[in-house]
Amino acid sequence: MNTATKSKHIGRNISRIRELRGMKQEALAIAIGISQQSISNIEGSEIVDDEKLQKIAEVLGVSAEAIKNYSDETVLNIINNTFSSHDNSTINAINVQPNFNPLDKVVELYERLVLAEKEKVEYLEKLLKGK
């Protein structure tokens, strides 16, 4: 059965969008001034009246039309088409590989520490000779 012949289940769409937003039923209920049980009932309903749908859409940050036309398949297509591992931000986030040898950095820091200590000793010797 393709999506054109399937009837839209508005409650299920609300549930999916709410979950994608990381929102719990209780938070949505508080935001629109009803009980969590009412949200549960709405999400179980195939049809939601326009007034409630509009309030829910505002809280979820989408339009009522977006809720009516929501499709998991569309969301997955958008994610697949917009996510790529070829841009620098995703490469750095997923596959962290330093372009330097960490051991070289340790040696460099050690050499800088030794140099700083030598300079400190020379400075202290000059102070002692000055007295």
UniProtKB/TrEMBL annotation:
Keyword annotations for this protein? Answer: DNA-binding
Report the GO molecular function annotations.
DNA binding
What Pfam families would the database entry show? HTH_3
Q: Where is the HTH cro/C1-type domain?
A: 14-67
Please tell me whether the keyword Secreted is annotated for this protein: no
Top-level taxonomic group? Bacteria
Name used for this protein in its record: Helix-turn-helix domain-containing protein
Organism of origin? Flavobacterium frigoritolerans
List the top taxonomic levels of the source.
Bacteria, Pseudomonadati, Bacteroidota, Flavobacteriia, Flavobacteriales
